[in-house]
Amino acid sequence: MQPYELTLAEAARAIHGGELSPVELTDSVLGRIDEVEPRLGAYVAVTADAARRAAAGAERDIAAGGHRGPLHGIPMGLKDLIDVAGLPTTAGSQVREGHMAVEASAVATRLQDAGAILLGKTHTHEFAFGLTTPQTRNAWAPDRVAGGSSGGSAVAVAAGEATFALGTDTGGSIRVPAALNGVVGLKPTYGLVPRHGVTSLSWSLDHVGPLTRTVEDAGLVLGAIAGYDPRDPASLSGPPALGARRAGQGLAGVRVGVPRNYYFERIAPEVEKAVRDAIERLRELGAELVGIDIPMTEYIQAAHWGLMVPEATAYHEDTLRTSPERYAPDVRVLLEAGALIPAGDYLRAQRARTLMREAWSGLFDEVDVIAAPTVTSTAARSDQPSVSWPDGSEESVSDTYVRLSAPANVTGVPALTLPVGLDGAGLPVGMQLIGRPLGEATLLDVGGAYEATRGEAAVRGGMSALAPAEG
């Protein structure tokens, strides 16, 4: 096994035990980037020289007894919405041409303090306003979409081009590409991870979180980036304990909610089967399965769009007026549409969100976690505009991907996606675990218990699926 194939936890143990150096690990991942990046397009820019210098510094610090923890010496990527001092933050847009970040974001600073090694900035759908990331190709099948808007981060992790990465999630932008590329993605509780220095799509829906190869790795990254920051008005002061469940403990006493409505409607049969099989595996591990009804489902899409679109338009008000031609057509039309939404509709969306949060709070009196599909279908072809359903309805690719992920953004609850199998075309299927506010530890416990039953191949599937480089 090559160092780039290691999970974060495996690499951290090897570094701490003196079996692997940060320089060896970083060189291996950079070599992997050289090998596969021309076919995948995960990165906007790779800062190889700076990464090697940082790795050498981490190696010296660790040798001198200054080990900072599990992220020390671990190479990672940051979505190109996240400011790093002295590097551009392009947000995937010509609007940001010539932009240079002066100050580091809160999460970039925390990762640097933890000793993580920055490899570069990963592609995003322009200003995170999309679910496909067209610059990037799926790690399992280059003719398929990567998912978005954190597509570059998901593909980098799946293909061995980063040991972990950060993304952002406003309607599913961590979980959708994670599911489509067979990796783990965690959208934390709203306000748990600070967003200072992160380009906003919709300030009342935006989240920052990790994309990793395992559930354990997601917990390690979350532990480094979570916590209060006074520069983020939504920041929470009480991060949860993130301890891992003991191996072999099982899930006795855990109540898993299985939706009777919404989440299993209009989804691909192979996705439904893989997720229901995974839920059955949770029962075999000791969990109690509880049927639940998802409340206010008729308001989810309207509330999500009613909040996100006008907030995005407000953020882009100046540049939309002065240089509209610099936006891609798909993003420009959404931003222009936001200017037409009446204030009353925005306020009604706010009211609907309040009622939905109250209703979802009641769900978690009945269950500890909800298990459901992450997305309705696996990765679409890059030239595929829509998905058709047996009832005669049709959805755009973006609409179908956001449908099952948006509720956790509207309500602000944490949600974890992890791979649970493959469809007939060999493409990954993701299961979403949704918890109560600040319930990340439970999600990590349940997800980790399931993941432990899947075996080694499931963790490194994207790297195995990627065909060898030509020549």
From TrEMBL:
Coiled coil segments of this chain: none
Domain of life: Bacteria
One Pfam family per UniProt: Amidase
The Amidase domain, residue ranges: 24-444
PROSITE patterns found in the cross-reference section: AMIDASES
InterPro entries, alphabetized: Amidase (IPR000120), Amidase_CS (IPR020556), Amidase_dom (IPR023631), AS_sf (IPR036928)
Protein name: Amidase
Taxonomic lineage: Bacteria, Bacillati, Actinomycetota, Actinomycetes, Kitasatosporales
